[in-house]
Task: inverse folding
């Protein structure tokens, strides 16, 4: 029987972020073509589609128009080879709001080692990684794509990565690690200041107490 699933109408993007619990993991499983076979509850909650709306739909159901095509090209080139891959993606919820995620891919294979399913796990991305690094790069890629096509944006991306001396995955990894280090440093500095203030307070107490 030839059952045609009714196409979901694309939401109109609005420049507002989905508010969601960023400690959670969004998970989905697809076939080799990116058709959704499973979505966890977090995915359903964050994207705003019911699971019956997601099942058997292409994963581009959450594709955001701000995403340059070349990033998906890189994504598919990597996952088809079964590489370890982390991509940063802006997604579009049913409400038109956006949510940024970093994705990790896992592969389920048959007895001959051929990939049969993709499993994607996504976490929220630190704000600074997006605003300082990823958004400016993606905006540039999208502009180039709109003016001159994907080949041109791919050339730009290759040039950008060559200058950094990194692959896309290495860039993403570097940004995430740098961000974590900065946050840890800020925490250490914060703790030192708090401790310093406590020390000052104690000193102040004793100097007052002893009339020094
Ligand atoms: C497991 C898996 C998860 C994916 N997750 C997303 C996602 O969260 N957002 C997205 O826009 N595309 C995702 N994609 C890529 C889409 O399949 C698709 O290539 C992309 O949305 C671009 O749309 P297009 O191929 O129609 O241009 C995923 C693909 C796979 C295999």
Result:
């Amino acid at each position: 029987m030839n059952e045609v699933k009714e196409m979901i109408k694309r939401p109109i993007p609005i420049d507002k972020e989905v508010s969601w619990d960023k400690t959670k993991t969004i998970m989905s499983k697809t076939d080799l073509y990116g058709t959704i076979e499973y979505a966890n509850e977090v995915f359903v909650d964050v994207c705003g589609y019911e699971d019956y709306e997601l099942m058997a739909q292409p994963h581009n159901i959450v594709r955001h128009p701000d995403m340059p095509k070349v990033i998906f090209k890189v994504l598919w080139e990597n996952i088809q080879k079964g590489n370890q891959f982390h991509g940063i993606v802006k997604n579009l919820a049913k409400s038109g709001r956006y949510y940024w995620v970093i994705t990790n891919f896992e592969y389920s294979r048959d007895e001959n080692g051929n990939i049969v399913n993709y499993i994607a796990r996504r976490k929220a991305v630190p704000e600074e990684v997006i605003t300082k690094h990823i958004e400016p790069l993606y905006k540039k890629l999208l502009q180039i794509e709109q003016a001159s096509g994907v080949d041109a944006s791919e050339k730009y991306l290759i040039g950008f990565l060559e200058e950094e001396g990194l692959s896309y995955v290495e860039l993403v990894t570097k940004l995430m690690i740098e961000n974590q280090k900065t946050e840890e440093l800020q925490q250490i500095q914060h703790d030192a200041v708090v401790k310093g203030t406590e020390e000052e307070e104690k000193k102040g107490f004793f100097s007052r107490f002893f009339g020094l």
In short: Helices lie at 41-47, 51-54, 69-80, 127-148, 150-164, 168-209. Residues 26-192 form a domain with the Beta-Lactamase fold (CATH 3.30.450.20). The two ends are 93 Å apart (CA to CA). The pocket of flavin mononucleotide is lined by residues 28, 30, 34, 58-60, 62-63, 67, 69, 72, 89, 91, 118, 120 (CB under 6 Å).
